[in-house]
């Protein structure tokens, strides 16, 4: 019940909708450029994760290989570093108040996903 409440508050007040829209727009651009479709799939995964982050975690896919690692390097250079920086800045700003600390922690939890999204999957936390 607490996770549901935190996710609902995150969606409304914590930036969940804004992040999901941003990642969704990035996915549409990646899908339009055909060659970057894997990045679009990763952006959609990030959009879904950013909508409902509490009670979920990011784990490595066991079958991810060298192509996803190489693509992650390209992602990191093109988009990952500034997305991660935005999550860090938003997390710090949200941690200024006691009420915002859970939302700041959720933003910090999205940093690894923004830096290295390919070859990972979002699963429910135990």
UniProtKB/TrEMBL annotation:
Q: Which domain of life is it from?
A: Bacteria
Where does the Inner membrane component domain lie? 5-56, 71-120
- Name the UniProt record assigns to this protein: Uncharacterized membrane protein YccF, DUF307 family
Q: What does the UniProt keyword field contain?
A: Membrane, Transmembrane, Transmembrane helix
Instruction: List membrane-spanning regions.
Output: 12-44, 64-83, 89-111
Which regions form coiled coils?
none
- Which cellular components does GO assign to this protein? plasma membrane
Q: Which organism is it from?
A: Micromonospora inyonensis
Which is one Pfam family of this protein? YccF
């Amino acid at each position: 019940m607490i996770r549901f409440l935190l996710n609902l508050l995150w969606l409304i007040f914590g930036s969940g909708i804004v992040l999901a829209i941003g990642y969704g727009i990035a996915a549409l651009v990646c899908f339009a450029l055909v060659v970057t479709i894997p990045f679009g799939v990763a952006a959609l995964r990030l959009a879904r994760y950013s909508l409902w982050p509490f009670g979920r975690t990011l784990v490595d896919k066991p079958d991810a290989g060298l192509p996803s690692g190489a693509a992650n390097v390209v992602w990191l250079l093109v988009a990952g570093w500034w997305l991660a920086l935005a999550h860090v800045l938003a997390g710090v700003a949200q941690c200024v108040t006691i009420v915002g600390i859970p939302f700041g922690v959720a933003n910090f939890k999205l940093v690894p996903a923004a830096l290295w999204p390919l070859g990972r999957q979002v699963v429910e936390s135990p």
